[in-house]
Design brief:
about 625 residues; eight-stranded mixed β-sheet; single chain; binds zinc ion; six-stranded mixed β-sheet
Protein backbone atom coordinates (compact mmCIF):
# COMPACT_ATOMS: atom_id res chain seq x y z
CA UNK A 1 0.00 0.00 0.00
CA UNK A 2 2.76 2.36 0.95
CA UNK A 3 4.57 1.45 -2.22
CA UNK A 4 1.56 2.35 -4.35
CA UNK A 5 1.14 5.64 -2.51
CA UNK A 6 4.74 6.60 -3.30
CA UNK A 7 4.22 5.88 -6.97
CA UNK A 8 1.04 7.98 -7.02
CA UNK A 9 2.81 10.96 -5.45
CA UNK A 10 5.66 10.64 -7.93
CA UNK A 11 3.24 10.65 -10.86
CA UNK A 12 1.38 13.66 -9.56
CA UNK A 13 4.65 15.52 -9.04
CA UNK A 14 5.55 15.05 -12.73
CA UNK A 15 4.06 18.07 -14.53
CA UNK A 16 4.48 19.21 -18.11
CA UNK A 17 6.97 21.93 -18.88
CA UNK A 18 4.81 24.97 -19.56
CA UNK A 19 7.62 27.49 -19.80
CA UNK A 20 7.40 29.70 -22.88
CA UNK A 21 11.12 28.94 -23.29
CA UNK A 22 10.81 25.14 -23.54
CA UNK A 23 12.29 23.64 -26.71
CA UNK A 24 10.14 23.56 -29.82
CA UNK A 25 9.65 19.91 -30.87
CA UNK A 26 11.21 20.13 -34.34
CA UNK A 27 12.12 17.08 -36.44
CA UNK A 28 15.54 15.70 -35.46
CA UNK A 29 18.33 17.09 -37.64
CA UNK A 30 20.10 14.62 -39.92
CA UNK A 31 22.59 14.46 -42.79
CA UNK A 32 19.99 15.80 -45.24
CA UNK A 33 18.83 18.76 -43.13
CA UNK A 34 21.39 19.87 -40.56
CA UNK A 35 21.02 21.19 -37.01
CA UNK A 36 22.28 24.59 -38.15
CA UNK A 37 19.39 24.94 -40.60
CA UNK A 38 21.60 24.47 -43.66
CA UNK A 39 21.25 21.65 -46.19
CA UNK A 40 23.32 18.72 -44.88
CA UNK A 41 26.14 16.84 -46.66
CA UNK A 42 23.61 14.30 -47.99
CA UNK A 43 21.01 16.87 -49.09
CA UNK A 44 19.24 15.74 -52.26
CA UNK A 45 16.36 16.76 -54.40
CA UNK A 46 14.87 15.39 -57.59
CA UNK A 47 15.33 17.08 -60.95
CA UNK A 48 12.85 17.48 -63.80
CA UNK A 49 13.81 18.89 -67.22
CA UNK A 50 11.12 19.67 -69.78
CA UNK A 51 11.09 19.95 -73.54
CA UNK A 52 7.62 21.17 -74.54
CA UNK A 53 6.00 21.94 -77.89
CA UNK A 54 2.59 23.54 -77.79
CA UNK A 55 0.22 25.14 -80.26
CA UNK A 56 -2.47 27.63 -79.36
CA UNK A 57 -5.60 27.32 -81.45
CA UNK A 58 -7.25 30.69 -80.86
CA UNK A 59 -10.40 29.75 -82.82
CA UNK A 60 -11.38 27.28 -80.10
CA UNK A 61 -9.01 28.60 -77.43
CA UNK A 62 -7.52 25.12 -77.10
CA UNK A 63 -3.89 24.53 -76.20
CA UNK A 64 -2.33 21.31 -77.53
CA UNK A 65 1.06 20.15 -76.46
CA UNK A 66 3.56 17.37 -76.33
CA UNK A 67 6.43 17.18 -73.91
CA UNK A 68 9.38 15.15 -72.84
CA UNK A 69 9.94 15.09 -69.09
CA UNK A 70 13.39 13.88 -68.10
CA UNK A 71 13.13 12.85 -64.46
CA UNK A 72 16.28 12.19 -62.41
CA UNK A 73 15.99 10.19 -59.20
CA UNK A 74 18.51 11.70 -56.79
CA UNK A 75 16.77 10.15 -53.78
CA UNK A 76 18.14 7.10 -51.97
CA UNK A 77 14.84 5.32 -52.76
CA UNK A 78 13.72 3.07 -55.60
CA UNK A 79 10.52 4.45 -57.14
CA UNK A 80 7.82 2.20 -58.58
CA UNK A 81 5.40 4.96 -59.52
CA UNK A 82 5.45 8.73 -59.91
CA UNK A 83 2.89 11.45 -59.29
CA UNK A 84 2.13 14.07 -61.94
CA UNK A 85 0.30 17.38 -61.50
CA UNK A 86 -2.49 18.13 -63.97
CA UNK A 87 -3.80 21.42 -62.58
CA UNK A 88 -6.20 22.08 -65.45
CA UNK A 89 -8.40 19.44 -63.82
CA UNK A 90 -9.36 22.14 -61.31
CA UNK A 91 -11.83 23.07 -64.07
CA UNK A 92 -12.98 19.52 -64.87
CA UNK A 93 -16.66 18.81 -64.34
CA UNK A 94 -15.94 16.36 -61.50
CA UNK A 95 -13.18 18.40 -59.80
CA UNK A 96 -12.93 18.64 -56.01
CA UNK A 97 -13.35 22.40 -56.37
CA UNK A 98 -16.62 22.13 -58.30
CA UNK A 99 -17.88 19.33 -56.01
CA UNK A 100 -17.33 21.60 -53.01
CA UNK A 101 -18.94 24.50 -54.90
CA UNK A 102 -17.91 27.16 -52.40
CA UNK A 103 -18.41 30.92 -52.81
CA UNK A 104 -15.29 33.13 -53.09
CA UNK A 105 -13.46 33.75 -49.80
CA UNK A 106 -14.00 37.27 -48.42
CA UNK A 107 -11.51 38.53 -45.86
CA UNK A 108 -11.50 41.08 -43.09
CA UNK A 109 -9.22 43.40 -45.06
CA UNK A 110 -11.59 43.42 -48.06
CA UNK A 111 -9.61 40.96 -50.21
CA UNK A 112 -11.63 38.45 -52.22
CA UNK A 113 -10.19 35.21 -53.57
CA UNK A 114 -12.09 33.18 -56.15
CA UNK A 115 -10.09 30.01 -56.74
CA UNK A 116 -12.57 28.38 -59.12
CA UNK A 117 -13.09 28.57 -62.87
CA UNK A 118 -16.33 30.50 -62.28
CA UNK A 119 -18.34 27.66 -63.76
CA UNK A 120 -16.16 27.06 -66.82
CA UNK A 121 -15.98 23.34 -67.56
CA UNK A 122 -12.67 22.22 -68.97
CA UNK A 123 -9.94 19.91 -67.74
CA UNK A 124 -6.95 18.34 -69.42
CA UNK A 125 -7.09 15.34 -71.73
CA UNK A 126 -3.96 13.20 -71.57
CA UNK A 127 -3.63 11.74 -75.06
CA UNK A 128 -0.60 9.66 -74.23
CA UNK A 129 1.80 9.12 -71.35
CA UNK A 130 4.59 6.84 -72.43
CA UNK A 131 8.10 5.77 -71.61
CA UNK A 132 10.32 4.04 -74.17
CA UNK A 133 7.32 3.83 -76.49
CA UNK A 134 5.16 2.04 -73.97
CA UNK A 135 1.89 3.49 -72.65
CA UNK A 136 1.94 3.70 -68.85
CA UNK A 137 -0.91 2.82 -66.53
CA UNK A 138 -2.28 5.87 -64.72
CA UNK A 139 -4.97 6.91 -62.29
CA UNK A 140 -6.20 10.49 -61.90
CA UNK A 141 -7.30 11.92 -58.59
CA UNK A 142 -8.46 15.47 -59.31
CA UNK A 143 -5.40 17.52 -60.17
CA UNK A 144 -3.05 14.64 -59.34
CA UNK A 145 -2.23 11.64 -61.50
CA UNK A 146 -0.36 8.52 -60.44
CA UNK A 147 1.67 6.84 -63.17
CA UNK A 148 3.03 3.30 -62.80
CA UNK A 149 6.61 2.97 -64.02
CA UNK A 150 7.44 0.22 -66.54
CA UNK A 151 10.26 -0.90 -64.22
CA UNK A 152 11.46 0.40 -60.82
CA UNK A 153 13.54 3.58 -61.03
CA UNK A 154 16.65 2.99 -58.91
CA UNK A 155 18.60 5.72 -57.07
CA UNK A 156 20.64 7.76 -59.62
CA UNK A 157 18.27 6.46 -62.31
CA UNK A 158 16.85 8.57 -65.13
CA UNK A 159 13.58 8.16 -67.00
CA UNK A 160 12.04 10.00 -69.96
CA UNK A 161 8.28 10.45 -70.23
CA UNK A 162 6.67 11.24 -73.55
CA UNK A 163 3.37 13.03 -72.94
CA UNK A 164 0.72 14.54 -75.23
CA UNK A 165 -2.26 16.54 -74.01
CA UNK A 166 -4.78 19.27 -74.76
CA UNK A 167 -7.20 21.45 -72.81
CA UNK A 168 -9.62 24.32 -73.42
CA UNK A 169 -8.19 27.53 -71.95
CA UNK A 170 -10.52 28.84 -69.22
CA UNK A 171 -11.42 32.54 -69.33
CA UNK A 172 -10.90 32.68 -65.57
CA UNK A 173 -8.43 30.10 -64.27
CA UNK A 174 -8.80 30.22 -60.50
CA UNK A 175 -7.27 33.71 -60.35
CA UNK A 176 -3.89 32.44 -61.60
CA UNK A 177 -4.27 32.13 -65.38
CA UNK A 178 -6.83 32.65 -68.11
CA UNK A 179 -7.71 34.73 -71.15
CA UNK A 180 -9.71 37.70 -72.35
CA UNK A 181 -11.64 36.41 -75.36
CA UNK A 182 -9.01 35.53 -77.93
CA UNK A 183 -7.00 38.77 -77.45
CA UNK A 184 -4.96 38.01 -74.35
CA UNK A 185 -3.74 34.74 -72.93
CA UNK A 186 -1.98 34.40 -69.57
CA UNK A 187 -0.84 30.83 -69.24
CA UNK A 188 0.14 29.10 -66.02
CA UNK A 189 -0.59 25.56 -64.73
CA UNK A 190 -0.67 24.49 -68.37
CA UNK A 191 1.61 21.46 -68.79
CA UNK A 192 1.67 18.14 -66.87
CA UNK A 193 4.55 18.25 -64.40
CA UNK A 194 6.26 16.26 -61.70
CA UNK A 195 5.10 16.26 -58.10
CA UNK A 196 7.94 16.86 -55.63
CA UNK A 197 9.41 13.76 -54.03
CA UNK A 198 11.39 14.77 -50.93
CA UNK A 199 13.06 13.43 -47.78
CA UNK A 200 10.26 14.67 -45.48
CA UNK A 201 7.00 13.47 -47.04
CA UNK A 202 8.14 11.25 -49.91
CA UNK A 203 5.63 12.14 -52.66
CA UNK A 204 3.71 15.40 -52.13
CA UNK A 205 0.48 14.88 -54.07
CA UNK A 206 -1.74 17.19 -51.99
CA UNK A 207 -4.44 18.16 -54.49
CA UNK A 208 -4.63 21.63 -56.00
CA UNK A 209 -8.15 22.73 -55.12
CA UNK A 210 -7.65 26.51 -55.14
CA UNK A 211 -6.12 27.92 -51.98
CA UNK A 212 -2.64 26.49 -51.52
CA UNK A 213 -0.27 27.08 -54.37
CA UNK A 214 2.57 24.98 -55.69
CA UNK A 215 5.56 22.90 -54.71
CA UNK A 216 7.76 22.19 -57.70
CA UNK A 217 11.06 20.59 -58.73
CA UNK A 218 13.82 22.61 -60.37
CA UNK A 219 15.08 21.95 -63.87
CA UNK A 220 15.68 23.37 -67.33
CA UNK A 221 13.00 24.18 -69.89
CA UNK A 222 13.07 24.22 -73.68
CA UNK A 223 9.65 25.44 -74.82
CA UNK A 224 8.42 25.94 -78.37
CA UNK A 225 5.12 27.79 -78.78
CA UNK A 226 3.22 28.20 -82.03
CA UNK A 227 0.63 30.98 -82.12
CA UNK A 228 -1.12 33.21 -84.66
CA UNK A 229 1.57 35.34 -86.33
CA UNK A 230 0.24 38.62 -84.93
CA UNK A 231 0.79 37.64 -81.29
CA UNK A 232 3.65 38.95 -79.17
CA UNK A 233 4.78 36.46 -76.52
CA UNK A 234 6.38 37.04 -73.10
CA UNK A 235 7.59 34.02 -71.16
CA UNK A 236 9.80 32.50 -68.52
CA UNK A 237 13.17 32.05 -70.23
CA UNK A 238 15.14 33.67 -73.01
CA UNK A 239 13.96 33.88 -76.62
CA UNK A 240 16.16 31.42 -78.53
CA UNK A 241 15.06 32.45 -82.04
CA UNK A 242 15.01 36.29 -81.93
CA UNK A 243 15.49 36.72 -85.70
CA UNK A 244 12.33 34.74 -86.38
CA UNK A 245 10.04 36.53 -83.90
CA UNK A 246 11.21 40.14 -83.53
CA UNK A 247 11.55 42.85 -86.17
CA UNK A 248 14.90 44.52 -86.86
CA UNK A 249 13.63 47.64 -85.13
CA UNK A 250 12.47 45.74 -82.03
CA UNK A 251 15.86 44.04 -81.74
CA UNK A 252 17.66 47.39 -82.03
CA UNK A 253 15.45 48.96 -79.35
CA UNK A 254 15.93 45.94 -77.11
CA UNK A 255 19.71 46.26 -77.50
CA UNK A 256 19.41 49.90 -76.43
CA UNK A 257 17.24 48.89 -73.44
CA UNK A 258 19.95 46.51 -72.23
CA UNK A 259 22.13 49.54 -71.53
CA UNK A 260 19.40 51.79 -70.17
CA UNK A 261 18.09 52.37 -66.64
CA UNK A 262 15.18 54.32 -68.17
CA UNK A 263 12.49 52.52 -70.15
CA UNK A 264 12.96 52.14 -73.89
CA UNK A 265 9.72 51.64 -75.79
CA UNK A 266 10.20 48.47 -77.81
CA UNK A 267 6.58 48.60 -78.99
CA UNK A 268 5.06 52.09 -78.67
CA UNK A 269 1.44 52.95 -78.02
CA UNK A 270 0.88 53.87 -81.68
CA UNK A 271 2.56 50.68 -82.89
CA UNK A 272 0.57 48.51 -80.49
CA UNK A 273 -2.71 50.10 -81.53
CA UNK A 274 -1.92 49.73 -85.26
CA UNK A 275 -0.62 46.20 -84.74
CA UNK A 276 -3.69 45.14 -82.79
CA UNK A 277 -6.01 46.41 -85.54
CA UNK A 278 -4.16 44.52 -88.28
CA UNK A 279 -5.07 40.96 -89.24
CA UNK A 280 -1.80 39.06 -89.64
CA UNK A 281 -2.27 35.72 -91.43
CA UNK A 282 -0.38 32.55 -90.60
CA UNK A 283 1.42 31.32 -87.53
CA UNK A 284 4.68 32.08 -85.81
CA UNK A 285 6.79 29.82 -83.63
CA UNK A 286 8.61 31.12 -80.56
CA UNK A 287 11.30 29.19 -78.72
CA UNK A 288 12.29 29.89 -75.11
CA UNK A 289 14.95 28.32 -72.93
CA UNK A 290 15.20 28.68 -69.17
CA UNK A 291 17.67 27.22 -66.71
CA UNK A 292 17.20 26.41 -63.04
CA UNK A 293 13.52 27.26 -62.69
CA UNK A 294 10.68 25.49 -60.93
CA UNK A 295 7.98 26.49 -63.39
CA UNK A 296 7.32 28.00 -66.80
CA UNK A 297 4.58 30.48 -67.75
CA UNK A 298 3.82 32.65 -70.76
CA UNK A 299 1.49 35.34 -72.01
CA UNK A 300 0.49 36.34 -75.53
CA UNK A 301 -1.50 39.10 -77.20
CA UNK A 302 -1.54 41.03 -80.48
CA UNK A 303 -2.15 44.23 -78.46
CA UNK A 304 0.91 44.51 -76.23
CA UNK A 305 2.89 47.66 -75.68
CA UNK A 306 6.40 46.69 -74.60
CA UNK A 307 8.80 48.72 -72.43
CA UNK A 308 12.26 47.54 -71.40
CA UNK A 309 15.19 48.71 -69.30
CA UNK A 310 18.05 46.97 -67.50
CA UNK A 311 19.51 46.76 -64.02
CA UNK A 312 22.82 45.02 -63.38
CA UNK A 313 22.48 42.91 -66.53
CA UNK A 314 18.87 41.92 -65.81
CA UNK A 315 16.42 42.95 -68.53
CA UNK A 316 13.33 44.55 -66.93
CA UNK A 317 10.27 44.24 -69.19
CA UNK A 318 6.67 45.42 -68.97
CA UNK A 319 4.02 44.26 -71.45
CA UNK A 320 0.61 45.95 -71.34
CA UNK A 321 -2.39 46.85 -73.41
CA UNK A 322 -2.69 50.42 -74.74
CA UNK A 323 -5.72 51.00 -72.49
CA UNK A 324 -3.82 50.11 -69.29
CA UNK A 325 -3.01 52.92 -66.86
CA UNK A 326 -0.76 53.74 -65.05
CA UNK A 327 1.48 51.25 -66.82
CA UNK A 328 3.92 53.74 -68.29
CA UNK A 329 5.42 53.99 -64.81
CA UNK A 330 5.33 50.22 -64.28
CA UNK A 331 8.78 49.69 -65.79
CA UNK A 332 10.33 52.12 -63.32
CA UNK A 333 8.46 50.37 -60.49
CA UNK A 334 9.78 47.02 -61.71
CA UNK A 335 13.33 48.36 -62.06
CA UNK A 336 13.29 49.72 -58.50
CA UNK A 337 11.81 46.46 -57.19
CA UNK A 338 14.42 44.17 -58.75
CA UNK A 339 17.25 46.42 -57.58
CA UNK A 340 15.84 46.77 -54.05
CA UNK A 341 15.23 43.06 -53.50
CA UNK A 342 18.57 42.09 -55.07
CA UNK A 343 20.58 44.48 -52.93
CA UNK A 344 18.70 43.66 -49.73
CA UNK A 345 18.04 39.91 -49.92
CA UNK A 346 20.26 38.34 -52.59
CA UNK A 347 20.97 38.84 -56.26
CA UNK A 348 18.25 38.11 -58.81
CA UNK A 349 19.58 35.04 -60.64
CA UNK A 350 17.87 35.05 -64.07
CA UNK A 351 18.38 37.04 -67.30
CA UNK A 352 15.07 38.92 -67.26
CA UNK A 353 12.27 40.05 -64.95
CA UNK A 354 9.04 40.63 -66.80
CA UNK A 355 5.54 41.63 -65.83
CA UNK A 356 2.42 41.39 -67.96
CA UNK A 357 -0.72 43.46 -67.48
CA UNK A 358 -3.98 41.58 -67.90
CA UNK A 359 -6.90 39.82 -66.28
CA UNK A 360 -4.97 37.87 -63.63
CA UNK A 361 -5.19 39.83 -60.39
CA UNK A 362 -1.63 39.02 -59.40
CA UNK A 363 0.34 35.85 -59.95
CA UNK A 364 3.97 34.87 -59.97
CA UNK A 365 6.09 32.58 -62.11
CA UNK A 366 9.87 32.41 -62.62
CA UNK A 367 10.99 35.58 -64.46
CA UNK A 368 7.35 36.37 -65.29
CA UNK A 369 4.51 37.91 -63.27
CA UNK A 370 0.89 38.73 -64.08
CA UNK A 371 -0.41 42.01 -62.63
CA UNK A 372 -3.62 43.93 -63.39
CA UNK A 373 -3.95 47.66 -64.13
CA UNK A 374 -4.92 49.46 -60.92
CA UNK A 375 -5.92 53.14 -60.81
CA UNK A 376 -4.28 54.04 -57.52
CA UNK A 377 -0.52 54.36 -57.97
CA UNK A 378 0.38 52.97 -54.52
CA UNK A 379 -1.81 49.90 -55.07
CA UNK A 380 -0.37 49.39 -58.54
CA UNK A 381 3.13 49.44 -57.07
CA UNK A 382 2.13 47.10 -54.27
CA UNK A 383 0.80 44.32 -56.52
CA UNK A 384 3.68 44.70 -58.97
CA UNK A 385 6.36 44.60 -56.26
CA UNK A 386 4.54 41.75 -54.47
CA UNK A 387 4.50 39.50 -57.54
CA UNK A 388 8.19 40.23 -58.19
CA UNK A 389 8.96 39.59 -54.51
CA UNK A 390 7.84 36.03 -55.23
CA UNK A 391 10.97 35.64 -57.39
CA UNK A 392 12.77 35.42 -54.00
CA UNK A 393 10.03 33.40 -52.22
CA UNK A 394 9.26 30.79 -53.64
CA UNK A 395 10.96 30.93 -57.07
CA UNK A 396 14.51 31.13 -55.67
CA UNK A 397 13.84 29.75 -52.17
CA UNK A 398 11.68 26.84 -53.31
CA UNK A 399 9.44 26.23 -50.29
CA UNK A 400 6.29 24.11 -50.17
CA UNK A 401 3.52 26.63 -50.84
CA UNK A 402 0.76 24.07 -50.68
CA UNK A 403 1.46 23.46 -47.00
CA UNK A 404 3.20 26.63 -45.86
CA UNK A 405 1.95 29.81 -47.58
CA UNK A 406 3.42 31.89 -44.73
CA UNK A 407 6.88 30.90 -46.04
CA UNK A 408 6.23 32.41 -49.48
CA UNK A 409 3.28 34.84 -49.30
CA UNK A 410 4.22 35.89 -45.79
CA UNK A 411 7.97 36.31 -46.21
CA UNK A 412 7.25 38.06 -49.51
CA UNK A 413 4.71 40.43 -47.93
CA UNK A 414 7.34 41.33 -45.32
CA UNK A 415 9.92 42.27 -47.97
CA UNK A 416 7.22 44.12 -49.97
CA UNK A 417 6.81 46.60 -47.11
CA UNK A 418 10.51 47.40 -47.41
CA UNK A 419 10.14 47.87 -51.16
CA UNK A 420 7.10 50.17 -50.78
CA UNK A 421 8.87 52.16 -48.04
CA UNK A 422 11.80 52.63 -50.42
CA UNK A 423 9.86 53.58 -53.55
CA UNK A 424 7.59 56.00 -51.69
CA UNK A 425 10.21 57.23 -49.23
CA UNK A 426 9.42 60.67 -47.83
CA UNK A 427 5.71 60.45 -48.65
CA UNK A 428 2.95 59.92 -46.10
CA UNK A 429 2.22 56.51 -47.66
CA UNK A 430 5.85 55.35 -47.70
CA UNK A 431 6.50 56.43 -44.14
CA UNK A 432 3.38 54.84 -42.62
CA UNK A 433 2.43 51.88 -44.83
CA UNK A 434 3.82 49.24 -42.44
CA UNK A 435 1.50 50.53 -39.69
CA UNK A 436 -1.38 48.78 -41.45
CA UNK A 437 -0.04 45.46 -40.08
CA UNK A 438 -1.10 46.51 -36.57
CA UNK A 439 -4.47 47.73 -37.86
CA UNK A 440 -4.93 44.33 -39.51
CA UNK A 441 -3.98 42.67 -36.24
CA UNK A 442 -6.82 44.46 -34.45
CA UNK A 443 -9.28 43.38 -37.14
CA UNK A 444 -8.15 39.80 -37.76
CA UNK A 445 -6.57 38.42 -34.57
CA UNK A 446 -9.93 37.53 -33.06
CA UNK A 447 -9.67 34.95 -30.26
CA UNK A 448 -11.57 31.81 -31.13
CA UNK A 449 -11.58 32.62 -34.83
CA UNK A 450 -7.91 33.25 -35.58
CA UNK A 451 -5.90 30.22 -36.73
CA UNK A 452 -2.16 29.65 -36.36
CA UNK A 453 0.13 30.27 -39.35
CA UNK A 454 0.93 26.58 -39.56
CA UNK A 455 -2.70 25.76 -40.55
CA UNK A 456 -2.92 24.50 -44.14
CA UNK A 457 -4.13 27.14 -46.61
CA UNK A 458 -7.14 25.02 -47.61
CA UNK A 459 -8.20 25.08 -43.94
CA UNK A 460 -7.65 28.79 -43.45
CA UNK A 461 -10.73 30.96 -42.95
CA UNK A 462 -8.72 34.16 -43.35
CA UNK A 463 -5.87 33.50 -45.75
CA UNK A 464 -5.13 37.22 -46.16
CA UNK A 465 -4.25 37.26 -42.46
CA UNK A 466 -2.60 33.89 -41.83
CA UNK A 467 -0.67 33.66 -45.11
CA UNK A 468 0.20 37.31 -45.80
CA UNK A 469 -0.20 39.91 -43.10
CA UNK A 470 0.50 38.05 -39.88
CA UNK A 471 3.80 36.52 -41.03
CA UNK A 472 4.84 39.99 -42.26
CA UNK A 473 4.03 41.37 -38.80
CA UNK A 474 5.92 38.45 -37.24
CA UNK A 475 9.11 39.25 -39.17
CA UNK A 476 8.70 42.98 -38.51
CA UNK A 477 8.49 42.33 -34.75
CA UNK A 478 11.42 39.89 -34.95
CA UNK A 479 13.50 42.56 -36.72
CA UNK A 480 12.49 45.63 -34.72
CA UNK A 481 11.96 44.21 -31.24
CA UNK A 482 14.04 41.05 -30.92
CA UNK A 483 17.09 40.90 -33.21
CA UNK A 484 17.68 44.41 -34.53
CA UNK A 485 17.83 45.27 -38.22
CA UNK A 486 21.42 44.27 -38.98
CA UNK A 487 21.30 40.85 -37.28
CA UNK A 488 17.85 40.09 -38.66
CA UNK A 489 18.78 41.00 -42.24
CA UNK A 490 22.00 39.00 -42.10
CA UNK A 491 20.03 35.95 -40.91
CA UNK A 492 17.29 36.23 -43.55
CA UNK A 493 19.88 36.78 -46.30
CA UNK A 494 21.69 33.64 -45.15
CA UNK A 495 18.40 31.70 -45.30
CA UNK A 496 17.96 32.89 -48.90
CA UNK A 497 21.57 31.99 -49.76
CA UNK A 498 21.40 28.52 -48.21
CA UNK A 499 18.07 27.53 -49.74
CA UNK A 500 18.07 29.14 -53.19
CA UNK A 501 17.02 26.48 -55.76
CA UNK A 502 16.32 24.09 -52.87
CA UNK A 503 13.36 22.94 -50.76
CA UNK A 504 13.44 24.31 -47.19
CA UNK A 505 11.06 23.11 -44.47
CA UNK A 506 9.88 25.32 -41.57
CA UNK A 507 12.54 23.83 -39.25
CA UNK A 508 15.29 24.80 -41.71
CA UNK A 509 14.11 28.39 -41.56
CA UNK A 510 13.82 28.44 -37.73
CA UNK A 511 17.25 26.86 -37.29
CA UNK A 512 18.94 29.14 -39.80
CA UNK A 513 17.62 32.31 -38.15
CA UNK A 514 18.56 31.02 -34.67
CA UNK A 515 22.01 29.89 -35.78
CA UNK A 516 22.97 33.02 -37.67
CA UNK A 517 21.57 35.41 -35.04
CA UNK A 518 22.98 33.34 -32.17
CA UNK A 519 19.66 33.52 -30.36
CA UNK A 520 17.31 30.83 -29.10
CA UNK A 521 14.00 31.76 -30.71
CA UNK A 522 11.92 28.64 -30.06
CA UNK A 523 9.64 30.76 -27.85
CA UNK A 524 9.14 33.21 -30.69
CA UNK A 525 8.24 30.60 -33.36
CA UNK A 526 5.92 28.79 -30.95
CA UNK A 527 3.91 31.92 -30.21
CA UNK A 528 3.78 33.25 -33.77
CA UNK A 529 3.66 30.13 -35.96
CA UNK A 530 2.12 27.33 -33.90
CA UNK A 531 -0.33 29.21 -31.67
CA UNK A 532 -2.49 32.31 -31.68
CA UNK A 533 -0.92 33.60 -28.46
CA UNK A 534 -1.59 37.29 -27.82
CA UNK A 535 0.58 39.88 -26.13
CA UNK A 536 -0.36 42.01 -23.15
CA UNK A 537 2.53 43.74 -21.41
CA UNK A 538 1.59 45.89 -18.42
CA UNK A 539 2.99 48.23 -15.79
CA UNK A 540 1.42 47.11 -12.50
CA UNK A 541 2.84 49.83 -10.29
CA UNK A 542 5.89 51.95 -9.56
CA UNK A 543 7.61 52.50 -6.19
CA UNK A 544 10.71 54.31 -4.98
CA UNK A 545 13.15 52.81 -2.47
CA UNK A 546 16.02 55.15 -1.60
CA UNK A 547 17.38 56.38 -4.93
CA UNK A 548 16.13 53.32 -6.86
CA UNK A 549 12.83 53.31 -8.72
CA UNK A 550 11.12 49.92 -8.92
CA UNK A 551 8.89 49.36 -11.96
CA UNK A 552 6.65 46.33 -11.46
CA UNK A 553 5.93 44.80 -14.88
CA UNK A 554 3.78 41.86 -15.80
CA UNK A 555 3.17 39.74 -18.86
CA UNK A 556 -0.57 39.12 -18.87
CA UNK A 557 -0.94 37.27 -22.21
CA UNK A 558 0.49 33.98 -23.50
CA UNK A 559 3.02 35.61 -25.84
CA UNK A 560 6.35 36.79 -24.49
CA UNK A 561 8.49 39.56 -26.00
CA UNK A 562 11.25 41.82 -24.67
CA UNK A 563 10.09 45.10 -23.10
CA UNK A 564 10.97 48.59 -24.23
CA UNK A 565 10.44 50.95 -21.32
CA UNK A 566 10.35 54.71 -21.55
CA UNK A 567 11.19 56.35 -18.21
CA UNK A 568 10.04 59.93 -17.77
CA UNK A 569 11.61 62.29 -15.27
CA UNK A 570 10.62 65.65 -13.86
CA UNK A 571 11.25 68.66 -16.14
CA UNK A 572 10.37 66.65 -19.29
CA UNK A 573 13.52 64.50 -19.58
CA UNK A 574 13.19 60.80 -20.48
CA UNK A 575 15.22 57.79 -21.50
CA UNK A 576 14.63 54.36 -23.02
CA UNK A 577 15.47 51.07 -21.28
CA UNK A 578 15.60 47.87 -23.34
CA UNK A 579 14.81 44.83 -21.19
CA UNK A 580 15.87 41.55 -22.84
CA UNK A 581 13.59 38.51 -23.26
CA UNK A 582 15.43 36.79 -20.36
CA UNK A 583 13.41 39.07 -18.04
CA UNK A 584 10.58 36.48 -18.20
CA UNK A 585 12.82 33.49 -17.32
CA UNK A 586 11.47 33.31 -13.76
CA UNK A 587 7.82 33.89 -14.58
CA UNK A 588 5.32 36.44 -15.77
CA UNK A 589 6.31 39.22 -13.33
CA UNK A 590 9.47 41.29 -13.44
CA UNK A 591 10.74 44.18 -11.40
CA UNK A 592 12.87 46.66 -13.32
CA UNK A 593 15.27 48.46 -10.94
CA UNK A 594 16.18 51.91 -12.14
CA UNK A 595 18.92 53.51 -10.10
CA UNK A 596 19.00 57.08 -11.33
CA UNK A 597 18.68 59.24 -8.27
CA UNK A 598 16.28 61.29 -10.37
CA UNK A 599 12.61 61.51 -9.66
CA UNK A 600 10.59 59.23 -11.98
CA UNK A 601 7.23 60.76 -12.86
CA UNK A 602 6.03 58.21 -15.39
CA UNK A 603 6.82 55.02 -17.35
CA UNK A 604 5.48 53.71 -20.70
CA UNK A 605 5.82 50.20 -22.11
CA UNK A 606 6.34 50.02 -25.92
CA UNK A 607 6.32 53.83 -26.33
CA UNK A 608 6.65 53.76 -30.13
CA UNK A 609 3.76 51.28 -30.32
CA UNK A 610 5.37 48.66 -32.54
CA UNK A 611 3.91 45.68 -30.64
CA UNK A 612 0.51 44.07 -31.21
CA UNK A 613 -0.29 44.66 -27.53
CA UNK A 614 -3.99 43.86 -27.04
CA UNK A 615 -4.46 46.22 -24.08
CA UNK A 616 -2.53 49.46 -24.28
CA UNK A 617 -4.45 51.06 -21.39
CA UNK A 618 -2.25 49.18 -18.89
CA UNK A 619 1.01 50.13 -20.65
CA UNK A 620 1.52 53.40 -18.79
CA UNK A 621 1.94 54.64 -15.23
CA UNK A 622 0.43 56.70 -13.91
CA UNK A 623 -2.70 55.56 -15.71
ZN1 LIG B 1 1.57 36.41 -53.48
Amino acid sequence: MLLFLTVTVALQASVADTSPFRALPLPAPNRVRGASGAPGPDYWQQRADYVIRATLDTAGSVLRGSERIRYANHSPDTLRFVWIQVEQNLFAKNSLTYALNQPPLHFAGGAVFDFTGKGFIGGITIERFRSAGRELRRIEYGTMMRVELPRPLAPKGLIDFDVAWHFPVPPYGGGRMGRIGTRLYEMGQWYPRMVVYDDVHGWNPLPYIGAGEFYLEYGDFDVTLTLPAGFVVAATGTVANPLAVWSTEQRARLARARGSAERVQVITQAEATAHGARRTPGAKTWRFTARNVRDFAWAASPDFRWDASAWNGVLIQTFYRPSATPWEEANRMAWFTIQHFSETWGMYPWPHATTVEGLVEGMEYPMLTFVPAIDKREDQFWVLTHEFGHEWFPMMVGSDERRYPWMDEGFNTFIDYGSAEGYFKGTAYGDTVRRELLTDYRISAVPGNEQPLIAKPVESRDLAWTAYQKPALMLTVLRDAVLGKETFERALREYVRRWTFKHPQPADFFRTIENVSGRDLDWFWRAWVYTTARLDQAVDSVATVGDTTLVFLSNRGQMVLPVTLEVRYAEGASDIRELPIEMWNLGSRFTARIATGKSVVGVVVDPSQIYPDVDRANNRWPR
